[in-house]
Amino acid sequence: MAMSTGSGGRGEVTADINVTPMADVMLVLLIIFMVVTPMLQKGQTVELAMTKNPVDMKEADRDDAVLIVVTRDGKLYLGQDRVTIDDLSVRVNDLLSNRLDRTVFVRSDNRAKYGDVVQVVDGVRNAGVDKIGLLTERVDD
Predict the structure, then answer these.
(1) Strand extents, DSSP E, the chain
(2) pLDDT at residue number 91
(3) How far apart are CA 44 and CA 64, in angstroms?
(4) Among 60, 62, 68, 130, which residue carries the largest CB count within 10 Å?
């Protein structure tokens, strides 16, 4: 609040809204959202195998991409849902039944058993999928 001394000699109260604290709070919230948003990855986190010359698969980043995750302890996830190897073919077939693009991407932890990944690829092939992308990360030189 401010006191106004006009020509009348009597002090009148003038109401001013101070927006500085509100701007400070908004900037802090913006910073929090900027820090937290990259942490909100979709799906399970795995440490991908590293390769020198991976092929860019931009389709795997789409929201409607069919993604199977194999964790290091052999757990399988189809999107966000945990599945078993026995249910994988049926679930993938149901998911792709009305889609033109029948591509499935596999994100496998580099410490996962090779046999687990082979079973996943075999299950996806049993669902009638011919295009399977094995996702890796590029080695930094």
Answers:
(1) 2-5, 11-14, 50-51, 66-70, 76-78, 81-83, 103-108, 131-135, 137-138
(2) 93
(3) 16
(4) 68
Structure tokens at 80: 């966000």
pTM of the model: 0.66
User: In this predicted structure, what is the pLDDT of residue 130?
Assistant: 85
Q: What is the mean pLDDT of the chain?
A: 85
Can you say whether residue 79 is alpha, beta or left, with left for phi > 0 and alpha for psi between -120 and 50 degrees?
Answer: left
Q: Which two tokens stand for residue 59?
A: 């389709």
What domains are there in the chain, each with its CATH number? 2-39 (no CATH), 50-138 (3.30.420.270)
Place of tokens 């401010």: 2
Indicate the burial class of 119 (C-beta count within 10 angstroms; 0-12, 13-18, 19 or more). middle
Residues 7-17, mean pLDDT to the nearest whole number: 72
Query: Which runs of consecutive H residues, i.e. helices, occur in the chain?
Result: 20-36, 85-96, 114-126
